[in-house]
Amino acid sequence: MIGPRFAEMLDGARAGNDAAFAALWRDLNPPLIRYLRVIAPRDADDLASETWTSVTLGLDRFTGDEGAFRAWLFVTARRRAVDHFRRERRRPATPVDPDTLRDALVAARTPSDDVLDALGTEAALAIVATLPPDQAEVVALRTIAGLDVQQVARVIGKRPGTVRVLAHRGLKSLARTIGPATRPEPTHGTSKPADGTSKEVTS
């Protein structure tokens, strides 16, 4: 996040200052690429370029703070992706790559941390990839872009309540699938020998 300098960077970008625009790009392009790799893996780079072109043309019309700009960027990206899917509607669907989801899920901390922290193997990441597409997208937007529920709702064109339900269902499904048996047991304080009894660990 750029923080307090956002307004200065935005004004500079509007005025044609390359350094100011580059600062916005450096901050937001990496999460933009990761998001697009979740929803359109084969065309993420091209869609990112189209997104930034649209944003550049619309800078003079934008009003709002850094959070609003971030949301606007991802709304624009999703629209470009929708346009792309319409153009390519006859192409076979591409499944979500578990490696892509891994990059997305570790990009930032979210309320899903407890569940995500229990996911450590490729097999577990493959479980995430089995989520319905709408749930996967909500998790991606919350994780990659750091958008709140209201902003995600605007991006995907659904009500905030629907976003909460999708996020809840996705995380509940992950928690149910991985189960308590897959979580690591506490190791500090006691150890358990082969006979099943516990004894104190001393240093």
Structure, briefly:
The chain has 203 residues and is mainly alpha-helical. The protein has helices spanning 6-14, 18-39, 44-58, 66-87, 98-105, 113-117, 122-129, 133-145, 149-156, 160-178; strands spanning 190-191, 199-200.
What does this structure look like?
- By secondary structure, this protein is mainly alpha-helical.
- The chain folds into two domains: 3-87, RNA polymerase sigma factor, region 2, helix turn helix motif (Rna Polymerase Sigma Factor, Chain: A); 98-179, Winged helix-like DNA-binding domain superfamily/Winged helix DNA-binding domain (Arc Repressor Mutant, subunit A, Orthogonal Bundle), CATH 1.10.10.
- 64% of the residues lie in helices and 2% in strands.
- The protein has helices at residues 6-14, 18-39, 44-58, 66-87, 98-105, 113-117, 122-129, 133-145, 149-156, 160-178; strands at residues 190-191, 199-200.
- It has a two-stranded antiparallel ribbon.
- Helix 4 (66-87) runs parallel beside helix 9 (149-156) and helix 5 (98-105) packs across helix 7 (122-129).
- The longest helix has 22 residues, at 18-39.
- 31% of the residues are buried.
Strand-helix topology:
Layout lengths: L5 H9 L3 H22 L4 H15 L7 H22 L10 H8 L7 H5 L4 H8 L3 H13 L3 H8 L3 H19 L11 E2 L7 E2 L3
Helix pairs in contact: 1-2, 2-3, 2-4, 2-5, 2-8, 3-4, 4-9, 5-7, 8-10, 9-10
Shape: globular
User: Residue ranges: pLDDT <50 for 5 or more in a row?
Assistant: 105-113, 118-125, 181-203
User: Which class best fits the helix and strand makeup?
Assistant: mainly alpha
Largest sheet: 2 strands, antiparallel
What radius of gyration results from the CA coordinates?
A: 21 Å
